[in-house]
Every structure is written in C-alpha cells, then in structure tokens.
Amino acid sequence: MTSVSIPSRPVDRLVQLKNHLSTMTQKQHKLCMIPGPVEFHEDVLEAMSTPATSHVDPNFIPVFGEVIEMTRKVVLSQAAQPIILSGSGTLGWDQMCNVIEEGDEVIVTNTGYFGDRFGECLETYGAHVTAIRVPVGHRVTVEKVKEAFESIKKPVKMITMTHVDTSTGVLGDVKGIAAYVRQHSPETLIVIDAVCAVASEELRFDEWDIDVVISATQKALGAPPGLSVVVASQRAIKVYENRKTPVRNYYSNWGKWLPIMAAYEARKPAYFATPAVQLIYAFHVSLSQILAYGIENRFAAHREASVQFRMALAHLGLKPVAVDETCAANGMTAVWYPEGVDAKLVAQMAGQGVQIAGGLLQPHAPNYFRIGHMGLSVCDPNRKHIKKVIDVLTASLSQLGYKA
Amino acid sequence: MTSVSIPSRPVDRLVQLKNHLSTMTQKQHKLCMIPGPVEFHEDVLEAMSTPATSHVDPNFIPVFGEVIEMTRKVVLSQAAQPIILSGSGTLGWDQMCNVIEEGDEVIVTNTGYFGDRFGECLETYGAHVTAIRVPVGHRVTVEKVKEAFESIKKPVKMITMTHVDTSTGVLGDVKGIAAYVRQHSPETLIVIDAVCAVASEELRFDEWDIDVVISATQKALGAPPGLSVVVASQRAIKVYENRKTPVRNYYSNWGKWLPIMAAYEARKPAYFATPAVQLIYAFHVSLSQILAYGIENRFAAHREASVQFRMALAHLGLKPVAVDETCAANGMTAVWYPEGVDAKLVAQMAGQGVQIAGGLLQPHAPNYFRIGHMGLSVCDPNRKHIKKVIDVLTASLSQLGYKA
To answer: Which domain of life does this protein belong to (chains A, B) (predicted)?
Structure first.
C-alpha cells in the first residue's frame, strides 16, 4: 500500500467555518415575507437534512411516488401527469419545448415580467408568439383573448397565462379564459404559469380543463427552492407523442422523464438523472401538510388573508399595483410606494427583522414593493406573520416620515 | 372582511405524517456507499435546514459569492468561470448547447453509460459525434484519440472525456489526452464530465488547460443532489460569445447566467431564476471543508482509499471492472460478481445497513456491483466507513455461499 501524509480532520478550522456561516445566516434570520421563497415549516426544514439516501433506495422510491400522487391532488386532477425535476421554476417554461415545434402559433397573455420571459423562452423553441399586453396592474380579459384568436389566421397551438405574475401581483382570469379557449379552439393547449399560485390561488386542473400547470416548490407549495413542478394533461402528452420534429432540448425532454415518473409512481427504481433526494423528502412533508389542511381551505385562507392585507394597506393609504380586487392575487401583493417613500422601505423593514421585496417589472420597479402572504404564514395564524409584516410596515413608513 | 371556515392546524394528523416519514427514512438510514449520493457531513445537513432566506438577501449574496470562488479553487483554477445552477449533473451536459452549433464535429471518448448519454445530448444540440469506444473496463488511449482526429477531415470543435464513468469505475486519462489535444488541435474545446471526479480525482484545470468541467454536488463535492456545477474556461466563454447561431435552449443559456454569476461574485443582487438557497448553504459548508482539508490531500486520501479497497477485493478473490490500476477510479470501484453470486448481494448488504449499487451499463449490468469510496467516507477515517463496507461485503458474500 502506498503511504501518504493526510492531515487529521482539521476540527478547529471547521468549527470556525461553521460559526462564520451561522453569523451569515441563521443568527440573522429575518421573517421571509417576499413572494417566495416563503417561510418553511420546521418539519419541512427537518426533512431537508435527511441523511444521504440512494435515489433508488426502497425507502425513497415510495416517498417520490407519493410526492407525484400528492402533486396531482393539489392541482385537483385525477389523471394528469406530474413531472418533478431538479431545477428552478423557470425550468417549467423550458419543458414547453416538448409540445412546441418550429412556427407554432402561441398567444402569451402578459401581465408583467414573467409573461415577457415566458414568451422569450417559447420563441427559443421556435414558437411564433403573439403577446397580449395590458397596462400594469390590469388583467387580460376574455375579450382581448378573443381579438388575438381572430387576428391569427392559423390554428393556435398554445395559449399561456401567468396565474399570478410575481412581478405585479396581478391574478389572471384563468377560469374565464380557459373556458373561452376550450370552447372556441378546443385543440389549443392551455398552459398556466402558476409558480406563484399553486396551493394559494383557486386552480382546478380537471374542471377547468387545463393542459399544463407550471410551478415550483418555494412558494405556496411550501418547500425550499430547487424543484421544478410541472403537471401535464394527457392531451398535452399526446401532442408531445405526435410531434413531427425532435425535441430541441435534452434535460427537459419528456421522453426521458415520463418513464421515470411512471416508475416511481409504480414504486419501481429508475434512473435518468439523480433527483434532489432531500428536496423530495421536504416536498413530501409540505404536500402532506397541504392535503391535511385541505385544498379548498387553502383557497379560502388565502382569500381571507389577502382581504385582511388589502384592508391594512387601505388603512395606511397605500395603493396596490393590481387595479381592483378581481385582479389582485391572494398570495401576494405589489404596492406602490406612497409619496416621499422609496426602496429605502425594504431596508428599513429588514432592519426590523422582516424581509420584503422591491419591485421587479421595469420601468416601474423603483416605484413599488412586494409582500408575500402565502403558505405557512397564512395557514398557521398562531405564527402571527401577517400581523407582524403589517406592524413593521406601519412602523417603517412612519420612521421614514410617511403619514397615512 | 369575508368570513370563511378555516380549520386550525391539524396537529394530530401532522404528527402522524411525520412519524410515517421518519419510518420511511431516518430510522432506516443505511450507510450510503453508492457512487453518489455519498454520506454527508452533519454540518452540511444542518445547513440544508437553513430557514427561508431571500435569494437576494444581503446575508445570502456573499454565501453564493464564496461558493463560486471556492468552486474555482477546488478545480485548481485562477480565472475560470463557475456556473452553479439548480439542476442535476445531467444539466451540465445540456450547457454544452452554449458552445455547440449545427454540424460541429465532436469526439466523445466513451468508457460507459455516461459517455453514451453525453454523446446523445450533444447530438440533440446539433453536434456530429464521433464516439471512441473501448471494451468495458478499458480506458481510451491517446493513440485512439489521435486516430479519431486523423479520421475527421474537418476541425474538431470539442472532445469530451468522462473523468470517471460512474457506470464502470474507469478513470479516463484526462491529463494525457488533454496534453495531446492542446498540442495537436489547440482550438478544440476539452470538456470533462467530472461529476464523479471533482474533489476525489486529480484534476488540474489551469495546468492541464481544460475548457469545461461538469460536475454535481452529490459525489465527492459532498453536498446533497440538486446543483449542477460547471466550470468554463475563458476560451469556452469566447466560443459562446462568438457563436453564429442562437443558443437552442433557454434554461441552460449562459447569456442568462453569466451576468448572475458575476453579480453574486461581486456581492450584488441579481435575478434570472431562483437559486436553490438551502443547497447553496450546504454546498458552502462542504466546499469550506474540502478547502480546509486541502485539494492535494484529497487526491492523496482517495488514492490511498482506493488502493486499500482494491487490496481487500483481491483478498476476497474479486475482480474490478477496471482492467488495471492505471484506469481504476480512486473514488469508486465497479466489481464483477464472483461465480455463484448475483444482484442479491446488494439486498444482502442493505439488510446489514450498507447501501451499495448494482450495475448500470447494459448488457453487463446484471454481472457487477458498484461501491463508492469518496468524500467524507474517505477523508474522515474515524468514521470507519471503508472498513464497514469491506466487512459487510465479506460477511454478505459468505452468507450467500461464496468462498474466497
């Protein structure tokens, strides 16, 4: 045997590193009230530190299988296909490469930053995008969608909606537009970017006859960021299966992933790429909590919290970006800074232990802020997160010289 | 305010769920000695449960910035560009879409399953792939690479090597082939799939003049799965910048990510897609541990562990898949089942608390097993992981009727 000089574990240095990291993180934890990542339940965080487990371990396979089944239940579907990958929410847009072919007509209903980006993603995969734009704070109406369909002389392959645009807090009319599209153009795929909506906004996959829901774990789904969560209808999967040209993407290719999802759901081992085992465990906990609470109760709780939140804003004389209640998200609110207040508000609140987010949609970004009210912060009122964010907002505005 | 009926937190049901999950996981934890995910340090797991933190929180930005800097150090580079994304190791292959254009000639040196798949990925993005295949257990020689270059009458855009093919445990001759390629065809990009090699196998990015290293967190890098870790040379980035056709991929597009990596390294907020915050914290801990231990010490420790492991195999009369020591990985070993023993060995060892992996490369998969010996299990000998896996292997073989 060769003999080499290997130092023993450098304990002192590691302790020092650990203290360094603690200073950077846990000790300075602020209540995270941005529109995702949201605050996570202790049990979810505990599952994040599950020891190393093989991705084909007989203990892990049923956990992933149950995650697939519970995801289907959360979007209120019986037979749609969840596809849960290691990646961010953005990777869900990418997966539309499976149903888009060169020259396909797509209507993108656009209510902010995320509509712009989704359209750009679809163009990468060959789509010809017709964007429906509305003034900031407004939603896209069925009437506008009708006009778009009439203006396009070819079959429309897909229409996309941002259920809640995280950049503006505008709630799309998914139910109304889906009903129109299904009647007017039954073959058009109805694709919902619901990253900031699943498990907080009313969304009925089967009843509304949706084709794809795109989400991610770190918002109302209540687990840390790192999983792309897509649910596809059998109609969407048929479109993928009948495509004429190869999928222009490797990692997002459903041909690779559908057999893997089927295998885990059948409680059998399978491998294409290593799943994020610990995140799957954490997601299992949060999905279990969501289903134990009840989906209809989730919708109701978020509706109530958003009413409470907007009442507090009105009391402070603040104006949401969403122009009226019908187009206001229930899981987050974007708010215009009042006269004399600017992005200093975010730092002011952070200094008092509450993290909110600045604006995101240019050129308006410097003029508004965003607060998340979803998931744990809404469903466990004992934690008083909503009260705290309102109290700190009130105090911070006052400290910055604003008078309601 | 609307009044809705929301149940209080259903505590009993949640406790029940938690016990259910514990039964499925922690209580049945087996020592994870597959070739990744590997066993994780307690401090790494603790960082996984960092509470919710904004991806642009002033506390998080320097953590991500340091992760980028430490990743560069781990591959022994001064100026290469790390790109750390939410995704699996496979997503690193996908990122080659940034430098490949339709019709580009690529040589894929193939020593197992992962070479096949990498080639398939590159073809998706338009590459014309020339695969160099060798019998199972053998490495690709410089001579074979020379022949491939001679057979291709056009400039070769890229050559790929699997540093350690996780399916066979064969260690590629990265140093030798890179030296030949750089001299013979200086513009050819040298791309190393080092998912199962970074921080366990000798790899010198700058000294060997490598262009891309592709890795992932769950092997010798010592953090749970869920991050794609790519390091690109300035030469590779120039090739991306000077490409003539658009990148055929949205999520993996370096145009989106390079500004984000630059921002985090400059300790400034930036956003394209939400990073996997908790995984970044965990990766920070494992990178800190790796650098504290020392890269050269890591190489030496893995060399020593592999010698020890192969000696134990020889003692048992078992034969590694890698045909000789020069092509045997230091972080894992694939081993032929001896006469009379088959895949039952994996279950037999699992029953005694040690998880190993079966074969992966068809048609040989039913005829061999794989054991990981990397990261924590090698660098902290006090844990006696290597001794345990050898002891349980010995006992299990005996229980299955095998006599050395």
So the answer is: Eukaryota
